[in-house]
């Protein structure tokens, strides 16, 4: 594999991951950390390395063990983040391992994966894409306050003076008598 082919494969992966990242972060109440893009790029680099050296089964088991430990030692990922990671890892393995002589098949797989990802993300995030901004709001719990939808909406409107919004209750703190909300507007 010459340098031009390697750079072409890398750029194909990089732009594919950027498209996936853009469509993954359309949901207002859940975003993917931009550093997760590095997982796909690292997988690409590792696969390139494995095509150049002879590796044994022990290294494969070692990598599997490392990824297993990381999975159980880190925070839980959202479904959106797990799908993003799986898609970027798949694209990176395809980009580096697929024979260059069959580049049209590689591009077909790339377009199919990205196309399905975009369609699914638009369908799933249709409601969330209505609101572009979000803000954290704290509302005090006073005597006689009700946790029904209308009471919370009224309190939010008094506090931030916005008519068209949606909200999500993050935490009800009975010690400080506050409700932590995420408001989408």
Description:
The protein has 185 residues and is mainly α. The chain has two domains: 3-128, no CATH class; 131-184. Helices cover 58% and strands 12% of the residues. It has six helices and three strands, in the order H-H-H-H-H-E-H-E-E. The chain has helices at residues 3-24, 37-52, 57-73, 79-97, 103-124, 149-160; strands spanning 134-140, 166-173, 178-184. A three-stranded antiparallel β-sheet has the order 1-3-2, covered by helices on one side. Helix 1 packs parallel to helix 5, helix 2 (37-52) packs parallel to helix 4 and helix 4 (79-97) packs antiparallel against helix 5. The protein is elongated, with a radius of gyration of 22 Å. The mean pLDDT is 79.
Defining traits:
2 domains; 58% helix; elongated; mainly alpha; 185 residues; single chain; 3-stranded antiparallel sheet; 3 strands; 6 helices
Q: H/E element string?
A: HHHHHEHEE
Given helix and strand content, the structural type is: mainly alpha
Strand content: 5-15%
Taking all residues together, what is the mean pLDDT? 79
Rg calc: 22 Å
Q: Number of folding domains? A: 2
Helix content: 55-70%
Low-confidence stretches: none
Shape field: elongated
Number of discrete helical segments? 6
Report the strand count.
3
> Strands of the largest sheet, in order across it?
1-3-2
Taking the alpha carbons of the first and last residues, their distance comes to 50 Å
Largest sheet: number of strands, sense, barrel closure: 3 strands, antiparallel
């Amino acid at each position: 594999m010459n340098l031009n082919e390697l750079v072409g494969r890398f750029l194909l992966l990089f732009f594919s991951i950027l498209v996936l990242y853009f469509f993954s972060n359309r949901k207002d109440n859940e975003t993917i950390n931009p550093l997760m893009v590095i997982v796909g790029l690292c997988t690409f680099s590792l696969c390139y390395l494995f095509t150049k050296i002879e590796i044994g089964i022990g290294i494969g088991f070692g990598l599997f063990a490392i990824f297993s430990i990381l999975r159980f030692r880190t925070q839980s990922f959202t479904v959106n983040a797990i799908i993003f990671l799986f898609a970027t890892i798949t694209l990176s393995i395809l980009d580096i391992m697929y024979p260059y002589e069959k580049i049209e098949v590689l591009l077909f797989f790339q377009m199919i994966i990205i196309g399905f990802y975009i369609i699914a993300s638009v369908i799933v995030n249709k409601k969330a894409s209505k609101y572009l901004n979000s803000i954290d709001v704290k509302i005090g719990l006073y005597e006689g306050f009700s946790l029904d939808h209308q009471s919370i909406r009224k309190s939010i409107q008094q506090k931030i003076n916005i008519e068209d919004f949606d909200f999500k209750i993050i935490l009800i703190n009975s010690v400080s008598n506050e409700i932590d909300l995420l408001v989408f507007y």
